[in-house]
Design goal:
about 325 residues; alpha/beta; UDP-N-acetylmuramoyl-L-alanine:D-glutamate ligase; 9-stranded mixed sheet; 12 helices; kinase activity
Length: about 325
């Protein structure tokens, strides 16, 4: 059966609320700069009340990646849970308008659609407080196995490992994809997420459920419990049948497969405005490259280009036509 979709993502469906903030505001709020923390509805309301003027837009890590994949002209689909409320309808409208298929049944009752409160400091760093809300209602019944089998690459976000039912959905999708002979990619999402689930994430790799792993430097250091980058990369390369992709901000990206290690530079940007979504859009470009049959260097260059586009403005989704941008830079015909 030929694949209906190039990339299918499973993740948290979230509406982002962004605001500018100074470092001392983060300290006063008890927030860890550059990290993501899960909060309950009351804490989310407290943080929101202290925020300045806001910008609201649809987000969610895997959802951002799938929007980027579609932006490169590929067939993309997304599985994620929203409630039948204003935020949920906004999320569904936005992701479909971006060209991503989204047919997950909405929740009629229960918690509201998830929101992520993002404070962006002058250096472009984002500090996130996430109320998962309806995301926690995502379960294995929401995973369409026929859709999974009909997708070349399944992309999963590590944040899904928090809610128990979502974890079951994650595993169901991964097993169905591997059984169909397709590829499964996992984004580690956040170093604090890795701290919580290090053994389980490594188990997914070593049990053969995941064969592409995305991480940034801090996530990789957490995964292998070392502060030395070379040691962490060596451990990553020792994992059998794994393609490791490690982003390093302005230092570019390192692609690791066994003893092969390829370094690709970052694309320069005039000003870093907001790093929200940088890793998500890098993954979009890399996966788009893989789906198109590009070599690792080419796939990483597409990822670096997409990441550079998204950090040059506020928000986690691209504002430029990624396909045209790639053509303008000679990365795609």
């Amino acid at each position: 059966m030929s694949a209906t979709y190039d990339v299918l993502g499973v993740g948290n469906a979230i509406v982002d609320t962004l605001s500018r903030a100074e470092d001392d505001q983060l300290v006063a709020a008890g927030l860890h700069k550059g990290a993501m923390q899960l909060v309950d509805e009351a804490r989310a309301a407290e943080i929101y009340a202290a925020m300045g003027p806001t910008t609201v837009m649809s987000g969610g890590s895997a959802a951002n990646t799938l929007v980027g994949v579609a932006g490169f002209g590929l067939a993309a689909a997304f599985i994620g849970k929203v409630k039948d409320d204003d935020a949920g309808r906004e999320f569904a409208h936005d992701i479909r308008k971006a060209g991503v298929a989204f047919e997950t049944p909405v929740a009629a009752d229960g918690a509201a659609t998830a929101r992520c409160l993002i404070l962006v400091t002058p250096d472009g760093q984002r500090t996130m407080s996430t109320f998962l809300g309806a995301c926690q209602a995502l379960g294995p019944e929401d995973v369409d196995e026929a859709l999974v089998r009909a997708s070349k690459i399944l992309y999963l976000e590590g944040y899904l490992w928090d809610p128990p039912a979502a974890k079951e959905a994650f595993l169901k999708a991964a097993k169905a994809s591997r059984a169909a002979g397709n590829r499964v990619a996992l984004s580690l999402s956040d170093a604090f997420c890795v701290d919580r689930y290090r053994g389980e994430f490594l188990g997914l790799v070593r049990d053969g459920l995941v064969d592409i792993l995305f991480a940034n430097e801090s996530e990789l250091h957490s995964l292998y419990e070392t502060a030395d980058f070379a040691t962490a990369v060596k451990a990553l390369g020792a994992e059998a049948n794994l393609l490791g992709v490690v982003t390093r901000s302005e230092k570019g990206v390192v692609v690791v497969e066994g003893k092969k290690c390829v370094a690709v530079p970052a694309y320069p940007v005039t000003e870093v405005v907001d790093t929200t979504g940088a890793g998500d859009l890098f993954a979009a470009g890399f996966l788009a490259g893989l789906a198109r049959g590009a070599l690792y260097e080419g796939a990483a260059s597409l990822g670096a280009l997409a990441a550079a586009e998204v950090i040059a403005h506020v928000g986690a989704r691209p504002q430029k036509n990624l396909l045209q941008l790639a053509r303008d830079h000679g990365l795609l015909a």
